[in-house]
Structure formats: C-alpha cells, structure tokens
Specification:
Elements lengths: L1 H8 L6 E6 L5 E7 L2 H10 L6 H9 L2 E6 L3 H15 L15 E5 L6 E4 L7 E4 L5 H14 L11 H5 L7 H4 L13 H16 L3 H16 L3 H17 L13 E8 L3 E10 L2 E11 L6 H12 L6 E4 L11 E3 L4 H43 L7 E10 L2 E11 L2 E2 L5 E4 L8 H19 L6 E5 L2 H14 L7 E5 L4 E3 L14 H35 L6 H11 L2 H6 L2 H8 L1 H9 L21
Parallel strand pairs: 7-10, 10-11, 12-16, 16-17
Antiparallel strand pairs: 1-2, 1-3, 4-5, 4-6, 7-8, 8-9, 12-13, 13-14, 13-15, 17-18
C-alpha cells in the first residue's frame, strides 16, 4: 500500500484515463478523470461514503497506469475504448452495446441524415463519435435548418415517385422539406445540399462561413436584420457545439504511433496502437541511454520491441529504420495524425516527470541518510563514497579479502574488488588487513584516482589499527576518515580511541553501515568458497596417477567443473590433453568433493 500511495503522489493533474491492476497484473478497472491525481486519490483518502464494491476494488489495487488526453471529452472516449477492449470486471457502464453517438448519411437515393449509436460501415458515411449528445443534436438540427433534408423513411425509387405513390406532408408545408417524394425536388439539387451538409459534418466550415456571410450581407442589404441575426446565431451554434473527438477518428485505422522524448541519460518512448479509429493499447517506457545512441536508433529498436500487431503504417516524431519494407513510416506535420503525435509525446513527458520526481525523492532520501551518518560519526563532510574491507579464510587456508564500494548510499558494484593475500601465511587477519588496505590505496595514488570519503573496516580495534598502519605508510593517515565496526554489539571504533561509539540501533546511519559491512562479508565469503572449491577439485584431479598440476589447470580452465570433465567425451579430452591422459581421466571415477558450507560460527575473518 505504501508503494501505491507513493505512485499516487506522482500522478499528473491532467485529464485522462487511469487503469487499476491487481496482484496478478489483471486490469480490473478503467476510469476517466478531469484531474487524474485527484480522482485516484479519492479511492484511498477516505473510506466512509464509499460503497462496498468501491472499497473492495481499492483493496485489490496493486499498480496504476494512466494515459493523458487533451480534454475531458477525449478522456471519456478513451475510457470507452479501453473498457470495450478489455472488459474489466469492476466496470459496469459502457460494457454493453451502447456507445457514443454518430451522425450518418445513409446510402439511399435521396439520403437521409440520422444519428445512431451503432456503427455499420455498409449502412452509410459516419461522422463522429460525439462526446456530447447535446452537441451532436445541435449540429444535426443546424444541418436540417440550413438544408432541406428529408426525415421520412419512404422508399423514393424512380418508379414509386413516377407512379405518384406519395403525397406531401407537414414538413413540406412548414418549409423543412422540398418534397422529393412528390417529384418537387430533383435528385441533383438534393445531392448538392447533401454535399454542403457533409462539409459541416466534416468540420470544413469555411464553405459554411461563406454561405452564412453571403446570406447575412444580403439580408442586411434588404434591411432584413432579424433574418441576418438568425444566420449569425446559426454560425455561433455550429462553432460552439461542433465537437468531433480528436482522439478517436474512424479514418485513422490500423496505425501505430511511436514517439520519443529525450534527455542526456534517459529516453521516454510512448506507443499507441490505433484500430478502427480507436486507441486500443497504450504503453510508455523509460530507456537508459548508452554511449552514442541517437533518438532514431532508440526509436527504431523500440519499434521492433513494442509493436503488438502488423500495422503497415507507423506515425512517429523522428525517422524510424524499419526491417519490413512493406511498412510505411510517416512524420505528420498537420491534421489529426499530428495531434496523435502530440498526444503520444504528452504521455512520454508525463512519464519523464514521474521518473524525475521518483529519482529526486530517492536521491533526497539517500542524502538524508548520509547526513544522519555524518552526524552520527561526527564527520566534516558527507560520506558520499564509502569503501569497506573484509577478510575471509578457513582454518588458515586460502586466505582472501574483499572491498566493496558504496556511492551515494547505494552499492557501486563496478568498484568492488577481490584480493588474494600474497605476503601473509596462515590465519593472520591483522596482517592481511594491512596488506589489502595498503595495496588498494597505493594503486589509487599511483593512478591518481579519487579517494573515498570514509573507510570502513569490518572488525574491532585490531583490524582497524592494522588498516591505519597501512595508511600511515602511504602518508594518508588523517586525510581519510576511517572507522571499524565490530559485530555483536555493533560498536564503532575510532583510531587511537579505546572507547567505542554506540549508535542508536534504529539510526538510518547505523543501518547503512551494517548494510555496507554485510555486503563486504558476502562478497568475501563468496570469493573464498570459489577458491576453496577450485583448490579441492584441482587436488582431486591431481591425485589421478599420471595427471599433474598443469594438466589439472588446463582441464579446469576449459571445463570449469569436475561434473563437466566427467561428462566430456574421450574425443574432447583427447583434443585437449592427449589420448593417454584422456584415457586416464575417463578410466577413473571422479567424484566431486562437496563444498564446505560456512557454519553459523564462521565469521568474515573465518574461524580464528
């Protein structure tokens, strides 16, 4: 639940659609909002006043996705598309056949203009969908007032009209229809009016503007001011309520939309899939950049990875290199396609803002912990870089050591180092600590590399004193803060101070030191086990009569393990070590010696 609340804080205060997923990553609810952040927050900020279904929905939410839209109307249409496509179980509205209304010019001899909620392409030419029923009806009423379009459903065939089967109705007498049913209006004249009406429905209102302007001017010349005012009002009505959606357009079908928004270290790529004029899939991803990668390269790679179908048209904001020669890449400059590009970029920018807020929050939290550690240890500067050393051996055999590096409170695994102890024989952890600390910082000084802000030694006064001796030999003592952390009581030791420091066990600073120490312990033990296991296997192979150290080394380098040596064919072994030695190896049963597990009593320094 804490992760959900944190995600809510990063939601945009924009219109759009939000989607709730459960623990199984199943889409369980789709909603629209004028302000996504406020709407989603309402599911978790209060429990009273919510019905049982909503409370249960809130309890199942494990992740949230969203898609921003240009307006609340577009969010309404987008919500409808997601619900129809995915059928989430907590959505009831919009799951039936009822959908947004269209205006349709029917395929008839004298076409009627109707509104409908069913989309049947064979029936006629559709316009919409309209996000507002009121807006749709106003446009339809305006068309009927401007032009004499019939409303009856009579079959106006040439034969029926010629036989005089129909009589004029009230619509003719009040001036709404010119009675094509009675042969009083020719088909060519009627089709001209339909074409003018089509311009209004398409949104090409320049022709209509000119028509209104001419009518108003003519009425004004004739001093018919009341008539001129009516034409002015009709134009205002058309401008105010002609609200065809820019998100859903039936002419845009089987199209993929891919856009990229870039900053120096990251790129944000949005993918929209358009099917039959509807956005049926939306995905935004963050890509961490590598060296010398262009936006074109990144988007071309994303096109291969993200595309869910076989659409042959891709809209993008930068050129895409396509593997399929049949696929067309378009970078639109104007129109509805350009508006889809703008919507896609807007979604990419929202993810960018979300990720930046998240990164800033994590960075701020890490700096807060480092600030607490600085105060706990009374350091003069923030310990942005911490290096920790640890030893490991088992009964004095195969002694090794490790160093881990933390930057900004997080592991910097590229800075981890393993050490084989070279100058110390047996289980002498103090001498081993002095050797590895000396080797580490001698090399840094030779390479003029950056020194850490804090050195941490896993151990008490003895290990710390040995590490300090190494720094003194290099002339670094007193220039780098160094402390030791002892187990059991988690005591912090300072150089030349016999009294340890006890930090509050709940302090984030101490928790960070423990994390660094435990990571160094894990890294050292892992390396020690690998070396010990390899030494045991090597010894086992050497025990075979006729197999020496060089042959054992060659076999292990090639096959990596006894199991693979045992499984190798005689021909493979012959190629590597010769026929005679291969027969010796295959003639013996090589049993892998079990690895010795670290007991609870074995410490990073090993049993002493």
């Amino acid at each position: 639940m804490a992760e959900i609340k944190e995600a809510i804080q990063r939601l945009p205060e924009s219109p759009g659609v939000y989607r709730f997923y459960n623990a199984d990553s199943e889409l369980i609810y789709v909603g629209k909002a004028k302000n996504i952040k406020k709407r989603v927050t309402s599911y978790f900020s209060k429990s009273h006043g919510l019905n049982r279904k909503t409370l249960r929905l809130a309890s199942e939410i494990r992740s949230i996705e969203y898609t921003v839209a240009f307006s609340e109307f577009d969010a309404l249409l987008l919500e409808n598309n997601f619900i129809k496509q995915n059928q989430p179980r907590y959505n009831i509205l919009l799951k039936d056949d009822k959908t947004f209304p269209y205006i349709c010019i029917l395929k008839e001899r004298f076409p009627r203009i109707i509104y409908t909620r069913k989309y049947i392409p064979e029936q006629g030419e559709y316009f919409g969908p309209y996000s507002s029923v009121v807006a749709m009806k106003n446009v339809l009423d305006l068309v009927r007032k401007l032009y004499s379009i019939r409303t009856c459903s009579l079959l106006l065939s040439e034969q029926n009209i010629a036989q005089g089967k129909f009589k004029v109705c009230l619509e003719y007498h009040i001036g709404n229809c010119k009675a094509p049913c009675a042969g009083l209006q020719q088909e060519e004249q009627y089709q001209e009016e339909i074409e003018q009406a089509r311009n209004i429905l398409k949104g090409n209102i320049s022709i209509v503007y000119q028509y209104f302007k001419n009518q108003m001017q003519q009425a004004a010349i004739n001093l018919e001011y009341e008539k001129a005012q009516k034409f002015k009002e009709k134009l205002s009505t058309l401008e105010r309520f002609q609200t065809k959606s820019l998100v859903v357009n039936r002419d845009l079908t089987d199209i993929d939309v891919l856009t990229i928004t870039s900053i120096p270290d990251y790129a944000y790529i949005n993918y929209l899939q358009i099917k039959e004029g509807a956005i049926i899939y939306s995905k935004t991803v963050e890509v961490k950049k590598k060296a010398d990668e262009t936006d074109e390269d990144l988007l071309s790679f994303a096109a291969q990875e993200l595309r869910a179908g076989n659409n042959l048209t891709i809209l993008s904001n930068v050129p895409i290199t396509l593997l399929d020669e049949d696929t067309e890449n378009i970078i639109p400059k104007i129109g509805d396609k350009k508006k889809l590009i703008s919507l896609s970029i807007k979604n990419g920018l929202e993810l960018k803002k979300d990720k930046e807020i998240l990164r800033e929050g994590k960075k701020s939290k890490q700096l807060e912990v480092l600030s607490i550690l600085q105060k706990d240890l009374q350091l003069t500067s923030l310990p942005l870089v911490i290096e920790c050393f640890d030893n490991s051996n088992f009964q004095g055999t195969t002694p090794v050591a490790s160093m881990v590096r933390f930057a900004n409170g997080k592991p910097d695994k590229k800075g981890y180092r393993h050490f084989n102890i070279k100058t110390v024989v047996g289980a002498n952890d103090f001498a081993s600590m002095q050797e590895i600390v000396g080797r580490r910082y001698k090399r840094i000084m030779e390479e003029a590399g950056p020194l850490p802000d804090l050195i941490l030694v896993d151990g008490g006064k003895g290990q710390l004193s040995s590490a300090c001796d190494a720094l003194k030999e290099l002339g670094l003592y007193g220039k780098i803060p160094i402390v030791g952390i002892a187990k059991k009581l988690e005591e912090i030791y300072y150089p030349e101070d016999p009294i340890p420091l006890h930090i509050n066990k709940k302090s984030p600073g101490l928790l960070l030191l423990q994390h660094v120490r435990d990571e160094a312990h894990r890294f050292a033990i892992t390396f020690h086990r690998q070396k010990r296991s390899k030494a045991q296997i090597k010894t086992e192979i050497e025990e075979l009569k006729g197999i020496g150290r060089q042959t054992a080394d060659k076999l292990l380098r090639h096959f990596k393990s006894v199991k693979k040596i045992r499984e190798a064919s005689l021909e493979e072994l012959t190629t590597l070590v010769g026929r005679k030695k291969a027969e010796l190896v295959k003639g013996k049963t090589i049993e892998a010696t079990p690895q010795v597990e670290t007991t609870p009593q074995e410490t990073p320094e090993g049993p002493k």
